[in-house]
Amino acid sequence: MINIGAHLSASKGFLNMAKQAVAIGGNTFQFFTRNPRGFAAKDIDKKDIAEYLSFISDKNFAVILAHAPYTLNPCSDKENVRELAQMIMSDDIKRMENIPHSYYNFHPGSHVGQGAEKGIELTSNLLNAVLLKGQTTTVLLETMSGKGSEIGGTFQELKEIIDRVELNEKLGVCLDTCHVYDAGYDIVNELDAVLAEFDSLIGLDKLKAIHLNDTKNPFSSHKDRHEKIGEGYLGLDAIKRIVNHPKLRNLPFFLETPNEIEGYAKEIELIKSVYEA
Ligand code: FE
Ligand code: FE
Ligand code: ZN
Predict the structure, then answer these.
(1) How many Å apart are CA 182 and CA 80, to the nearest integer?
(2) pLDDT band at 117, cuts 50/70/90?
(3) What angle do the packed helices 155-163 and 116-130 form, to 10 degrees?
(4) What pLDDT does 39 receive?
(5) Does residue 35 have a pLDDT over 90?
(6) Which CATH class is domain 3-274?
(7) 144 CA from centroid of ligand 1 (Å)
(8) CA angle 197, 199, 204 (to 5 degrees)
(9) Dihedral angle of Cα 247, 96, 9, 209, to the nearest 10 degrees
(10) Which of 56, 147, 218, 249 is the most exposed place for a label (fewest CB within 10 A)?
(11) What is the C-alpha to C-alpha distance for residues 185 and 197, in angstroms, rounded to an integer?
């Protein structure tokens, strides 16, 4: 059985997201920990979480994926911006313990002209400051498209961040199919070679989740515009090979395609139809 879900709105709580996930044919979901553009977070609702945990208990749910606000920048050149990122990630990691053993994904950041080396140093410093020995949450670095001054557009950069983090057993990677193709990894024609490169640098044991998106832009465009499954430059054949690849097929897949809830239901149905049992 494929583990699949979509990015859902967290505004009505965890039980609501879990019900929505099931209604669209999924068994997991992704959500923003707080307003993705601002930083406001709702209070933790213990009753909602208890009802959520009870609801999923007999449903073969896969691990869920929280996404940090994409406006936080762990490697900004401004100290106050880095401090805000640190405060938010630290708070998110503590809040995530209400749903133990979940995943928390973030964008490694933009070095804004300081250079990738400096960006890598600042982001790993921040991770060293926020990771806790006792946390059950795995923090995932997302593979980025390399637009602007983004770091994490290469497996080498992700490896360098991970290598500098003391508690790096708490770290993993979330591979975004739109981003890696935009970044210049040819997962359409050379999927095996791309995964071999990931394995030799980072180790496939660190690969914990897939953001399953098609892309609006051609190979190596460094653009980061997601497209509906099968309607972009990846195409359905490549998506089919990705979800069935022996090294990937048991990971949780999360759709971040430009869709409303009905569109996600259709995509999940489509992906299930090409997933080989
Ligand atoms: Fe993301
Ligand atoms: Fe993504
Ligand atoms: Zn993206």
Answers:
(1) 31
(2) very high
(3) 40
(4) 84
(5) no
(6) alpha beta
(7) 8
(8) 140
(9) -10
(10) 218
(11) 10
DSSP state of 204: G
Q: Which of 7, 103, 179, 264 is catalytic?
A: 179
| Overall average pLDDT of the 26-37 stretch | 93
Strand 207-212 versus strand 252-255 pairing type:
parallel
Distance CA 171, CA 154 (A): 17
Tokens of 66: 């929280």
- Which ligand has its closest atom nearest to the C-alpha of 215? 3
Q: Is 66 helix (H, G, I), strand (E, B) or coil?
A: strand
The model's pTM: 0.98
Question: What end-to-end distance do the CA atoms of the chain give, in Å?
Answer: 7
Q: What does the alpha-carbon distance between residue 185 and residue 193 come to, in Å, rounded to a whole number?
A: 9
Say whether 70 is catalytic.
Answer: yes
Q: Which residues pair with 110 in a beta bridge?
A: 150
Structure tokens at 216: 């609006």
Q: Positive or negative CA dihedral for 139, 230, 271, 190?
A: negative
Specify the residue for token string 């009753």.
47
What is the pLDDT, as a whole number, of residue 48? 98
Quick one: pLDDT at residue 40?
A: 87
Paired tokens of 243? 């979800």
Neighbours of 261 (CB within 10 A): 12
**67 CA distance to ligand 2 centroid (A)?**
9
What is the 3-class SS of 108-156, one letter each residue? CCECCCCCHHHHHHHHHHHHHHHCCCCCCCEEEEECCCCCCCECCCCHH
